[in-house]
Specification:
This protein has about 240 residues and is α/β, with parallel strands linked by helices. The chain has seven helices and ten strands. The strands form four sheets. The protein has a four-stranded parallel beta sheet with strand order 5-6-7-10, with helices on both faces. Strands 1-4 form a two-stranded parallel ribbon.
């Protein structure tokens, strides 16, 4: 398995880092993979940089010989702001990470999947890719776009044996979700407790936040032969937060 991250200083909002600023976490992830008896490879990667994407894919092919699954999981909280406060740079950063990063990765990986007779592409959209929330303008628009891109990939490359699926997590306890709350507090001056009261657990049918491992298990299943006839879908992982969709 290849794990990648920007792993360098990136945009800061309200003094808060929006990305991991070194590769420590990457190597910890590889150690966990190796402890399970599998091979792991850490690659520092900016998905918005075409040259870095090409180099990362070449490194993965040299190490493993083939690529069967691509999980596009890069994300950024840049773009979570009231609409009139979003700058052009905010819009473009959100677009470049969420959409163009996925485009660049797919353009680099699809040809090798075609040569291998198939593969699976899983794109991490969001429940916000199926609805809209105030103050999430750029984030929401790009996550909607990612679902459209997923459907395009499924239709164009299905004849090559390539499946494409989008996942749409809801309220998941992740570092990025927590960072988004911290950024909102820093920007608005509203207390964390007040922000949390705007999205109480009572709005989720299962009455709890999801865990990253639950999303991971879904991704693993979608990549497996157990999901061999699933493609072009946008799958909610939200504890019935978005009932009726």
């Amino acid at each position: 398995m290849v794990v990648s991250d920007l792993a360098r200083p990136g945009p800061r909002i309200g003094g808060l880092a929006t990305v991991a600023e070194d590769d420590t976490g990457l190597h910890e992830a590889v150690s966990e993979i190796e402890d399970l008896g599998q091979r792991g490879l850490a690659v520092v990667l900016d998905v918005t940089n075409v040259a870095e994407v090409g180099a990362a894919v070449a490194e993965a092919l040299a190490f493993f010989g083939r690529i069967d699954v691509l999980f596009n999981n890069a994300g950024t909280p840049v773009g979570v702001k009231p609409f009139l406060e979003l700058s052009a740079d905010d819009w473009m950063h959100s677009w470049n990470v969420h959409v163009m990063g996925c485009v660049f990765m797919c353009r680099a990986v699809v040809p090798t999947m075609q040569a291998n007779g198939g593969g699976v592409i899983i794109n991490n959209s969001s429940a916000s890719g199926l609805r809209a929330l105030p103050d999430y303008g750029a984030y929401t628009a790009t996550k909607h776009a990612l679902i459209g891109l997923t459907k395009t990939l499924a239709l164009e490359f299905g004849p090559d044996g390539i499946r494409a699926v989008a996942i749409c997590p809801g309220d998941i306890a992740t570092d990025m979700a927590d960072l988004g709350m911290q950024i909102a507090v820093a920007q608005s001056g509203v207390a964390m407790s007040e922000l949390e009261s705007l999205a109480p657990l009572e709005t989720i049918a299962l009455r709890r936040r999801g865990e990253a491992a639950e999303v991971g298990r879904t991704v693993a299943w979608l990549a497996s032969s157990g999901a061999s006839y699933i493609s072009g879908n946008a799958l909610l992982i939200d504890g019935a937060l978005m009932e009726g969709i």
